[in-house]
Amino acid sequence: ATTRTPLMAGNWKMNLDHHQATHLVQKLAWTLKDARHEFTSVEVAVLPPFTDLRSVQTLVDADKLELVYGAQDVSAHTSGAYTGEISPVFLAKLGVTYVVVGHSERRQYHHEDDAVVAAKAGSAFGQGLVPIVCVGEGLDVRRAGEHVAYTLTQLDGSLAGLTEDQASKVVVAYEPVWAIGTGEVATPEDAQEVCAAIRTRLGELFSPSVAAAVRVLYGGSVKSGNVASIMAQPDVDGALVGGASLDVDEFAAIVRYQS
Ligand code: PEP
């Protein structure tokens, strides 16, 4: 992780109302400012529901906050008869930096397969957004010892069609499904094993410079108490944080894992 800027991204999922969302962003910014957090050393992103993005944009712009924000999903299309979908064009106009694609909850509840995820990643890049592409195995796969092969197959399919330039900018999040929202965190060695395998595969799929540039995040029950040991792994470049990102002090402590 030495040459890559770590990214700590808070996935709020379908939580917080409008007031709570703006309050959380302000409080997070103040807390990190008080701690003299260097955003160039550890990048900080919040990923609110779509309906909060406009307010978050207003706050970030008005107060010149250094944190960035993103969305939790995006349409594979730019416009048209896709009721309920959100175009990457809309997100780009809201100043969005990142877009999560292929989160396990979308793969599970909305039956998104790797082809859909790849189409969404391409759609995000088409508007200058950076996709955070999520991959990771379920408990049955882990118990069968097939987690590396399974995750790499997901990776291959989810990055299909990206150019080398796009691939060099993508963020990959390894999120073992059995660790999401369960309180059961992967060991640092488990996280390292799969994140390293992802990086090796990026080299095979694209180039050694892509492998060296891409940030591979770990996600799954990250808390202030376990983040440092996970971040100490050479191929882990940050965290995608669910539950713990809703608590300002806890998320700020995760961001400040080095202090
Ligand atoms: C997530 O959903 O991306 C996630 C990592 O959730 P949690 O941190 O709550 O396990």
From TrEMBL:
Q: Which InterPro entries match?
A: Aldolase_TIM, TIM_sf, TrioseP_Isoase_bac/euk, Triosephosphate_isomerase, Triosephosphate_isomerase_AS
Q: For this UniProt entry, what is the primary localization, expressed as one broad class?
A: cytoplasm
Q: Which compartment or compartments is the protein found in?
A: Cytoplasm
Q: Which residues form a coiled coil?
A: none
Residues bound to substrate are 11-13, 181, 221, 242-243
Q: Which UniProt keywords apply?
A: Cytoplasm, Gluconeogenesis, Glycolysis, Isomerase
Question: What Gene Ontology terms for biological process does this UniProt record contain?
Answer: gluconeogenesis; glyceraldehyde-3-phosphate biosynthetic process; glycerol catabolic process; glycolytic process
Q: Where are the transmembrane segments?
A: none
* Top-level taxon in the UniProt lineage: Bacteria
Task: List, from the UniProt record, the residues annotated as the active site of this protein.
Answer: 103, 175
Q: In which pathway does it act?
A: Carbohydrate degradation; glycolysis; D-glyceraldehyde 3-phosphate from glycerone phosphate: step 1/1; Carbohydrate biosynthesis; gluconeogenesis
Catalytic reactions of this protein: D-glyceraldehyde 3-phosphate = dihydroxyacetone phosphate
What's the EC number here?
Answer: 5.3.1.1
Fill in the subunit field for this protein: Homodimer.
> What does the protein in this record do?
Involved in the gluconeogenesis. Catalyzes stereospecifically the conversion of dihydroxyacetone phosphate (DHAP) to D-glyceraldehyde-3-phosphate (G3P).
Family affiliation: Belongs to the triosephosphate isomerase family.
What is this protein called in UniProt?
Triosephosphate isomerase
